[in-house]
Amino acid sequence: MRIWIKNPLAILAENADGGVVVENGRIVELIASGGEPLRPVDQWWDARRHVIIPGLINTHHHFFQTLSRAHPQAINKQLFPWLTTLYPIWGRLDRDMFRLGVRVALTELLMSGCTTAMDHNYMFPPDVRDAVDIEVQEARALGIRATITRGSISLSVKDGAVPPDHVAQDEDEILADCERVVGLYHDASEGSMTQIALAPCAPMSVSLRLMRESAALAEKHDLRLHTHLAETEDEEAFCLEKFGYRPIDWLEDAHWLQPRVWLGHGIHFTCDDCEKLGRHGVGVCHCPTSNAVLASGFCKTRELEAAGSPVGLGVDGSASNDGSNMMEEVRHALMVNRLHYKSAEDVTHRDALRWATEGSARCLGRKDIGRIAVGMQADMAFFTLDELRFSGAHDPIAALVHCGANRADRMMVAGQWRVEDRMPVGVDLERLMIEHSAAARKFL
Ligand SMILES: [Zn+2]
Fold first, then answer.
1. What is the overall mean pLDDT for the chain?
2. Which of 44, 87, 265, 300 is 20 to 30 A from 201, comparing alpha carbons?
3. Are residues 235 and 105 in the same domain?
4. From ligand 1's centre to the CA of 122, what distance in Å?
5. CA of 198 to the centre of ligand 1 (A)
6. What's the gap in Å between 345 CA and the centre of ligand 1?
7. C-alpha 324 to ligand 1 mean position (Å)
8. 322 located within any domain
């Protein structure tokens, strides 16, 4: 089936004002203004009302946290007290809650323009040891592309760390499960819908041995590696006290200064650190909303990019955002970066969109997503400007970011419609909200 997505109102692609042709899940032709496809199409789809951008790619999240949004005990706290408050609450997570938390995060991401989701789950209570399996099932059911990380916590209260003992796991058990889920689900092929990455949680909750073993396993299976790093000054103080060096030295000690790594947050890096990360090709997922909510600080996006690091975008967990809306994240990225760099010319809506697309794709090590171009996967977000908030807007692409688009009218993933008329295909949203809200009440 060849479909011509015809004559969009605007499209974020070169020489494609006449639209794109999609065949077998890929973009096979870009049509210039007034042009026609080279070969006949089976169908055409009128995109005159739609502004089309590459599907957004989220590169840092904790899906289960949708169950603890705006939690009364955790709001208005910074990261360490926030974690100390929430971990015992999260310790009550059960299997049904986990599945619903995942389902809501994925659905919310998709509806906001995201075609590739990523999750960093580190909660593996006895009832939810197969968390990765549940996440893969849910992503496949929704039809969203996903990088699911096999997260891990090996240090808990008994070791002087914050996570409750029952959510932590023995390190050999973690490594064996990494092997298991990689064998079951990791698909490295072009157009892959499911990839697995390895993601020990953070310097406070895993050992160096687990970091090094994870790096070795990633090397063996050619996987990406992810962790939280340099999110707060508290973390730096923790590393100095426990290891006698800073978080970036911990990364090096763990054998993680390498291009298969991308980090969540990456705030408290010096300019020299940025140079070092760039030299080694380490990517950083910028999480502007979470960093603002938790008053953590600001990621040096320009210094990192100038040094050669891929910079992607992430909503982070829904307890520190407290949403999973990728278009809102793009808007916040624009604003936070302008505020930090005190420059409007040097940080544009196109930069923010680039982080959420091409930059995020580089973080995930993918060459087949992140752009609307011939040969790329047909992952696209379609927005209309029919809402009051866009009335009077001129530049349609800029309008999405500046006027605050936050809900796609249509979403296409691998050439398949996954959102139609603002509703996710095959999802009973009302029922999902009732079930998810009931599950979330168990965290009160
Ligand atoms: Zn996080």
1. 97
2. 300
3. yes
4. 10
5. 14
6. 30
7. 12
8. yes
